[in-house]
């Protein structure tokens, strides 16, 4: 099987495809609004620490497993753990990743669909003048049939590309898209400096202010570090499995993490500058700040920015593409499992995976007002105190609605738990020499270098202890009475 596998044609190809998976709605949509909701600077600092101390080593660990085994996550763990302690347990971590992929994609496709409608509105505004009242965000997300249509459209495009195999297609596409996305973001960032709110935005992002709900905020920062780097569910194992043996995993990981972090910070700076410059924009966001990417930016494009009316539709195409290179990797994790485990054809595997995920997407698409029941849904009921309330609070931060619940559960629980076991496996179980060899960190006499020992320390202690500590804190702090 492994000799039929595609390979990225170059190191740059891998970096851009993996960065394409990492850079997505997490950077452009989610990071700005959770930073806003968590009062800025303090949250950003914790997030950056999580990226550096936990995200970076986990990224290397995942790529090591993928490239070493040249398999998708479940068979990768079967192969890597052969004859090692707890041999039967580790593939479960691969299965957990598949479930996370399913959960994430089901709500991600809904938000990705919003980029299609934003593109449509921008075209309309470019030709017939900007009218912010066209897009009342609350009404838009509450329009059930429209949400279903947009989600279906985006899911179909994703499935279509995955049926065609990823290496040649994605690699070629991301090589063009990522540089263009970055250029447009740089342009928007430069433009933001000309606005009054720029200073306030920088202060908001970089002044370490205390978080209102520190523990939940720290878990959210950690969870987002996993989400934004596509870690904890085997996406990087899958992409790593297409990587040639000569490429440097360390250099690639550093490049992916840097690109992802810089893009998230730029997106936040751009959006907060608009919010601080035109406070009235906040009103249009509706109750939830989740609409920021789709509500705040048009205000800047059409009222403040030279050539904004040309850039606006292009920008939303790019948001769509950034999302697409992420949805492809999410679907690929599930599809590659069906192909490897069930020996299905790529077409059958993709159809089955995408069809099943779409059923869950329906629940998410209708949970922002489309269906009252789904919008108010809480897995453990509506109580506002006691045991079941505590469960809702612990696992879903007491958020109502299917989409919010899926989002919270996957980013804050499934990915960190998956990442926890991946670090334990690579740190403690998988032979250190094999890891060092994959990372190119053996010295002339075949011993692991000091740089490797630093990475190993992080995989053995810092990353699992940080994740374990936060999860334990939340369990212990829970009030079940
Ligand atoms: N990293 C993507 C983003 O930030 O939008 C989301 C994602 C893609 C998460 C792929 C997990 C994954 F496996």
Task: Give me a quick take on this structure.
With 481 residues, this protein is mostly helical. It contains 21 helices and no strands. The longest helix is centred in the N-terminal third of the chain and has 39 residues, at 90-128.
Structure characterization notes:
With 481 residues, the protein is mainly α. It has a single domain (11-475), classed as Amino acid/polyamine transporter I. The protein is built from 21 helices and no strands. α3 crosses α9, α5 (90-128) crosses α7 (144-163) and α12 (249-277) crosses α14. It starts with 10 loop residues before the first helix and ends with a helix. Residues 21-22, 24-27, 104, 227-228, 230, 233, 235, 326, 329-330 line the site of 4-fluoro-L-phenylalanine (PFF).
Give the distance, in angstroms, between the N- and C-terminal Cα atoms: 53 Å
Output the radius of gyration: 22 Å
Q: Give the class from helix and strand content and strand pairing.
A: mainly alpha
DSSP helical segment count: 21
Strand tally is 0
Q: What is the chains' assembly state?
A: single chain
**CATH fold type:** Amino acid/polyamine transporter I
User: Can you tell me the overall shape?
Assistant: globular
Task: Let me know the CATH homologous superfamily.
Answer: Amino acid/polyamine transporter I
Question: Helix and strand string, N-terminal first?
Answer: HHHHHHHHHHHHHHHHHHHHH
Uncertain stretches of 5 or more adjacent residues: none
Mean pLDDT across all amino acids: 90
